[in-house]
Amino acid sequence: MKDVAARAGVGLKTVSRVVNEEAGVTPDTVARVQAAIDALGFRRNDSARLLRTRRTSSVGLVLEDLADPFYAPLSRAVEDVARSHGALLFTGSSAEDPRREQELVLAFCARRVDGLVVVPASDDHRYLAPEMEAGVATVFVDRPAGRVDADVVLTDNAGGTRDGVAHLIAHGHRRIGFIGDQPSIHTANERLRGYREAMANAALPVLPQWYAMGPTTPDRVRAALAVMLSGPEPVTALFAGNNRVTVTAVRVLSDHPRPVALVGFDDFELADLLSPPVTVVAQDAPGLGRTAAQLLFRRLDGLTTDAPTRTELPARLIPRGSGEIPPSS
Amino acid sequence: MKDVAARAGVGLKTVSRVVNEEAGVTPDTVARVQAAIDALGFRRNDSARLLRTRRTSSVGLVLEDLADPFYAPLSRAVEDVARSHGALLFTGSSAEDPRREQELVLAFCARRVDGLVVVPASDDHRYLAPEMEAGVATVFVDRPAGRVDADVVLTDNAGGTRDGVAHLIAHGHRRIGFIGDQPSIHTANERLRGYREAMANAALPVLPQWYAMGPTTPDRVRAALAVMLSGPEPVTALFAGNNRVTVTAVRVLSDHPRPVALVGFDDFELADLLSPPVTVVAQDAPGLGRTAAQLLFRRLDGLTTDAPTRTELPARLIPRGSGEIPPSS
DNA sequence: CTGAAAGCGCTTACAG
DNA sequence: CTGAAAGCGCTTACAG
């Protein structure tokens, strides 16, 4: 910029005015400065600019896994909102590791992002309190914040699961299994709660071998399912606690001698092409991202200084066939 | 930092030393500075630091769509490599719009990212030449750079398609259709080329109504397929030019009276659960991202100053059933 | 309409 | 082992 000023024979401030398209510069001067800019191939250094203006026009997004089909549309929605507000997006995956989440969040804060959208991997975000007090707007999405007061945008996990399990009960099932993700994950627990509530609402018992929580690896799901499907009181229907469980369940059940009804939490692309087509409880992944990002920018733009809010988006039951199979015995 | 120095009763430089864990500070001084840091809740401003050190330790990733199941693992791979080099990642979606690509790239450059990984939406990247000369390392991935000399990492699209079509020919097909993405997209053309080559290698004709290029919307694919499947010389097999085409083709073909063989470019999660299971030519999406990012950091770390390279990763045919259906007439 | 001075928060290069 | 000065590339607040 100094070079441009020298070459155009003007002051630094005038170059700044031209670069920022501020009013009040003679067309003649503008032309001279512009010529110098072009000749020198000058491009403004936004990092320096932002040091002075105290706004970086960037937000950080921390999620579980960029490559996860559920989070991909969520991050795209956050990007779209950020873009419409002129902000760039830092992204990072926590891989479900609280330490990594914290590293990423603090690295983003050290770059002085204006705000953060975080899918928590940790259940304790007190490390963020000083940053939030220092003015970093923060919205938690998909899972609640831990030990810190902040905006939260969630899916109604318990309600969605309740609906799904009630749907199975309505189709005559009495022995219904549930396979969920690790109990350390909030959404996994909420879904388990929904399952229990639906069973209780129908005055149905829940035997200990009917539900299993843990890693959603194919082996673990296979093993859990084998237990539920054997013994004197095998389940006639299964509620799969997420995407990955559903996929493995479809594989296992297609080899099973008796038909078993299936409802899965989370929709997935080819669910309607499988045989039978898979009934799911669908979340609104883009809606989560969009809502969270809009909340963030409302705070950043000073449009609201209300106390932190908690938003719950509904989940939607989509009957396709697998959830309407009657009990087999 | 000034406040910390004042409170600890030391110079600015000493605080800097402690913050950066440089050697040569009395343990006693370190303790005093650390106490002041904690008391004030001081966190180093990396933006300011980077203004001085001239390295931002960040890279920009521009791709077609963050939410696309093909690009999600690619971006995750780039993130992992960046992370292992201590760099943060800016991400953005071009939505196949050259202007948006340029906006994003230049915005990243204005923030002075150290390097860029770009999935081109444009076929002219001369706008990037000044930035590259100014030292922004750039690697293009999935599609080649346009009118600029840079590192490129591609899938062998023509070769993969050739293998897939040859596979159909080996199973007795003579009339084979091809539905591809818009001809403005490089990979779409390469795949069309592979189709033509495979047919030519087998001395088979290609009728004009057997291939169609255009948007991969369900309606367009349906219409194109209807044309190929009707008339006096209907195709007995289809090569689908990408993921989205394959999915629509599966839907249409499952309703079709005669069995039609299908091979699709790109693998997708439940391909083996459909009936028939879908034979695909699979790309290595994480491999593309990893290779591109490694190349980028090799340049950034000054480990290589060779001329730009062109890397082609092989695509792999995965027979599952749909590609092994014999001709029906 | 234009510009010189001060400063954003840090590091570099130097001196003690 | 420690610190004062200068500067990274820009903007803010002011004066002319």
TrEMBL record, chains A, B:
The keyword Transmembrane helix does not apply. Keywords: DNA-binding, Transcription, Transcription regulation. InterPro entries: HTH_LacI, LacI/GalR-like_sensor, Lambda_DNA-bd_dom_sf, Peripla_BP_I. The keyword Plastid does not apply. One of its GO terms (molecular function) is DNA binding. Residues 1-53 form the HTH lacI-type domain. Pfam families: LacI, Peripla_BP_3. This is LacI family DNA-binding transcriptional regulator. The lineage of its organism: Bacteria, Bacillati, Actinomycetota, Actinomycetes, Kitasatosporales.
